[in-house]
Amino acid sequence: MKPPPSWIAAGCLALNCLIFALSPAAQTSGLEQVMKKDGQVVYVQGGQTVTLRLPITLAGNVTFLTNGMFKVGDGKLRDLKEGQILKADGTLLSADGSLMPVIDHLTVQAGRVVLVKDGEGAAIALEMALPDGSRLQPDGTRIFQDGRRLRLLDGQLLTLDGSPLPVQDTVVLGGGKVSVQKDGSIFSLRPDQSLMMSDGTKVLGNGTVIRRDGNPVTLIEGQVRVIEGVTPRVP
What we know:
By secondary structure, this protein is mainly β. The chain contains 1 helix and 28 strands. The chain has one helix spanning 6-22, and strands at residues 26-27, 31-37, 40-45, 48-51, 56-58, 62-64, 69-72, 78-79, 85-87, 91-93, 99-101, 105-109, 112-117, 120-123, 128-129, 135-136, 141-143, 149-151, 157-158, 164-165, 168-174, 177-182, 185-189, 194-196, 202-204, 208-210, 216-218, 224-228.
C-alpha cells in the first residue's frame, strides 16, 4: 500500500491540532494510567479498564486524545505506542522497563547532560544557564552563583528551571530475562548475576527481588516493579 500524499498527512496533523483546541479535556478523578490495548486506547481507574471516550488531562499539563496522541502544554503531538503506559503522574513506562517523565527535562546519561524536549533527547554541547543563575556544564557539573560546584549523578532528573525531579528505577521480567533500569540506563542480568539498587533493593537474575526489609518477591512474567531511584544531592 502506498503512503498517503503529503498534503493528506499534513491535513490529518492539522485536524488533530484542531481537535486539541476544541475538545474539552476532562479531569478524571482516580485515574491510574492510560495505554493502548489491541489498538484501542483505554485507561485504568479504580482497578477497572475503561475505553477512552473523551480527551483527559493528566499531571504535568498532559492532554491525552482518544486516538492515542498526547502532548504536554503547547508541545508537539506524540503517539502512545502499543505496550507503553502513560501513568497518572506524567511518567511514561515502556515495555523494556524504561520509565521517564514526559515533560521537558534535563537528565544525566553516562556522565553527559541530555536535554529532553517533546520526548526527544540530545546531549548539550555548551554550558546551559538556568533561571536561578546557576550554570550547567555538559559533563553534569552545576556551578552556582556563589561558586559552589555540584556534580550531578547518572540518572538524575531536573526540570528546565533546575528543580530536582523524583527518579524511579524499574525491574521487569520479560521472556524469562530480568531487565533493570538504573541510573538512566537499561541492561539485562544473567541468571547468576545480582544488582544492588539505589534504595538498597537487591535484584537477582533469576527473577527474585529482595526488598530493603529482607523479604523476597518473585517477579511475574511481564510485571514491572518500580523502585525508588537515585537520591539527588542537595548543595
